[in-house]
């Protein structure tokens, strides 16, 4: 049996797992009309509305110009709206719309099904999540 040396590296494993999971999640969310990034934004905003663009960018691990384009699209799709910060007009806060929350809840049931699939293949899903969160903290 030939060993794949690239799979000996944690970075390679994480990249391959990310690509496969992103493809799986994107396909599952497509019928709802959301991309994976849109669902993550709505998840962040459903849990804590009124996030700054910088915080949303940090949650997505994306740069501000990319998040600005994503927010433009989400505003056009009536998923979120922007509102100036109450004390600092230079800052913009993002809030989910009713439609955005409806689609988020619909997509969340899809996400729960996907998590159950992953859980059935992974010995300890909570440990995996904790490990991945630690890896993310290392890079921050």
Give me a quick take on this structure.
With 140 residues, this protein is mainly alpha-helical.
Description:
This protein has 140 residues and is mainly α. The chain has a single domain, classed as Orthogonal Bundle (Arc Repressor Mutant, subunit A). Helix content is 66%, strand content 9%. It has 6 helices and 3 strands; from the N terminus they run ααβααββαα. The protein has helices spanning 10-29, 36-47, 53-60, 64-76, 98-121, 125-139; strands at 51-52, 80-84, 92-96. A 3-stranded antiparallel beta sheet has the order 1-3-2. The longest helix has 24 residues, at 98-121.
List keywords for this structure.
9% strand, 140 residues, mainly alpha, Arc Repressor Mutant, subunit A
Spell out the blueprint of helices and strands.
Blueprint (H helix, E strand, L loop, with lengths): L9 H20 L6 H12 L3 E2 H8 L3 H13 L3 E5 L7 E5 L1 H24 L3 H15 L1
Antiparallel strand pairs: 1-3, 2-3
- What share of residues is helical? 55-70%
Structural class: mainly alpha
Full CATH superfamily name: Winged helix-like DNA-binding domain superfamily/Winged helix DNA-binding domain
Fill in the CATH topology: Arc Repressor Mutant, subunit A
- Strand fraction equals 5-15%
Rg from Cα: 17 Å
Largest beta sheet, briefly? 3 strands, antiparallel
Shape: globular
Query: How far apart lie the N and C ends?
Result: 39 Å
The count of domains is: 1
- Average pLDDT works out at 86
CATH architecture: Orthogonal Bundle
């Amino acid at each position: 049996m030939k060993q794949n040396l690239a799979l000996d590296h944690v970075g390679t494993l994480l990249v391959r797992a990310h690509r496969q999971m992103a493809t799986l999640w994107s396909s599952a969310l497509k019928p709802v009309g959301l991309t994976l990034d849109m669902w993550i934004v709505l998840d962040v905003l459903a849990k804590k509305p009124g996030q700054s663009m910088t915080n949303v960018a940090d949650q997505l691990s994306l740069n501000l110009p990319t998040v600005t384009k994503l927010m433009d699209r989400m505003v056009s799709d009536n998923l979120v709206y922007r509102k100036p910060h109450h004390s600092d007009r230079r800052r913009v806060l993002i809030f989910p719309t009713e439609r955005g929350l409806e689609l988020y809840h619909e997509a969340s049931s899809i996400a729960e099904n996907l998590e159950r699939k992953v859980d059935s293949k992974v010995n300890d899903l909570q440990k995996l999540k904790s490990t991945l969160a630690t890896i993310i903290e290392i890079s921050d």
